[in-house]
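ligand=zinc ion
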Amino acid sequence: MVRLSTALVALALGAASTFASPLSSDSQDANLAVRRSEAFNNLSPGVRAYLETLDPRDYEIDIPDEAELQRRQVTKDNGVIYNCKKGRVAVTYDDGPYKYHELLNQKWSDAGQQVTFFVNGYNYDCAYDEPWVTYLRHSVAAGHLLASHSWSHPHLTQLTDAEIDEQVNLMETMLLKTVGVVPKYFRCPYGEYDANVISRLQNKHGLTVVQWSDDIGDADGVSAAKQRATYNSYTSGQRHLILNHETHKSASHTVADTAIARFKNQGIKSQTVHDCIGASGSPYKVKATPGKRDSTWTCAGTPSPSS
Ligand SMILES: [Zn+2]
């Protein structure tokens, strides 16, 4: 359990209440209070510290509704997402931000479709640096979804609970300061998890863990032709949650072009993971005004890249 200062709780609850529906009974009041408290407790210490510096009008904390809480209750320890709802498709890109990120922002935006980026804080480069901050902001502005892929891409099953928490905390703080969002969705590096990892991510941090239904194989050396063939096999009405890596040139160039052309031909539209699973509420735990670059925008002293 996280200990909070009274002032900080009041601040957070005040901000949240401006987005809550009007209450009509004491029991609804009590339920809302529980939901607010859970939503706040799910936030990283770094996120809470940053929000304390903002005017409450400059941020909003997503409070899960009853349906969302029930979904989590039912799937509390194994509610990992593997696919979209029937007939829906979500294209996802892991391991960025990387030099092809902006190209993917543009390609999918130009096609009128949204994708999800499962990004790292410190993998190929430090996400606090430019041009990554600008690219990540462009993703959100274009309606794409930013989700967490851990800070430094470690094998989570080999970490202590405190180290798992650090991976989440560093990501949440970085994305809040730079872009103004705290992700609600998380993909484990290498897709590796166990019961403890899931419990930590979903119960302590209020995250939804997302795997995939289809892997185009870019990270495993599958040829670009074969990657394109995967997309060209998709037909209207199917559901797919597709793993790609933005760090691979083929996936970010010709394969993305093929996917967009095929989707257009078949009347398929890639949605964000949040939309493709039919989730309610905001796709982010928090949305806020981003900060201004300062000395805390650094990867120095944090866990270094593992892959
Ligand atoms: Zn990865």
